[in-house]
Specification:
This protein is an alpha+beta fold. About 55% of the residues lie in helices and about 15% in strands. The chain has seven helices and six strands, in the order E-E-H-H-H-H-H-E-E-H-H-E-E.
Length: about 180
């Protein structure tokens, strides 16, 4: 069987097997050839997943990063058949895009998947219950105040929130 495109013959299947190997008994060169192909497939899949996956990374985005890496590595080392791994990774990316779209059009789904912001400080007091639940100390909160406001005082702070991304944010008091 030959792989072809527009009546131009590229490679026969025996040549493809020679280059990429089959099964678990792969040479260094075959694994390297697979790594090159997976590199470009991963770039394409990351573009399909969207820029937000590598912008402000949320728990939702970490799922795709780690799982995609683990999944595609199986194709490189030959633990699983090449094409089914690549196809399942594409399904995974498309599922991620679909869930992200659902979060966009449905605030309820967004709250379930991504969570909601949590208030840690307001009205001049820390919310100890929320801080304990999310394992955040007053020192953690003060660190973000120093970074964002350049101050070691809460006098100008309206609220400190734990955002859906896991980052802390500070709202300044209105004058």
């Amino acid at each position: 069987m030959r792989i072809w495109h527009r009546n131009f013959i590229f490679l026969r299947m025996d040549q493809i097997n020679l280059i990429f190997g089959e099964g678990r008994d792969l040479t260094v060169w075959q694994m390297s050839a697979r790594a090159v192909v997976i590199y470009f497939i991963t770039l394409i899949y990351i573009r399909l997943a969207g820029r937000r996956v590598f912008g402000k990374i949320s728990t939702f985005d970490y799922v795709i990063i780690f799982t995609l890496g683990a999944l595609l590595s199986r194709a490189i080392v030959g633990v699983s058949p090449f094409l089914p791994v690549v196809a399942s990774a594409l399904v995974f990316i498309l599922l991620h895009r679909f869930i992200a779209w659902l979060c966009l059009v449905s605030p309820a789904v967004g709250r379930i998947i991504k969570g909601r912001p949590v208030c840690l400080y307001s009205n001049g007091a820390f919310n100890i219950k929320n801080m304990k639940q999310h394992l955040i100390t007053e020192r953690d909160a003060m660190e973000v105040v120093r970074k964002e406001m350049g101050s070691d005082s809460l006098d100008e702070v309206e609220e400190i929130n734990l955002e859906r991304s896991g980052e802390l944010s500070v709202l300044k008091k209105r004058k």
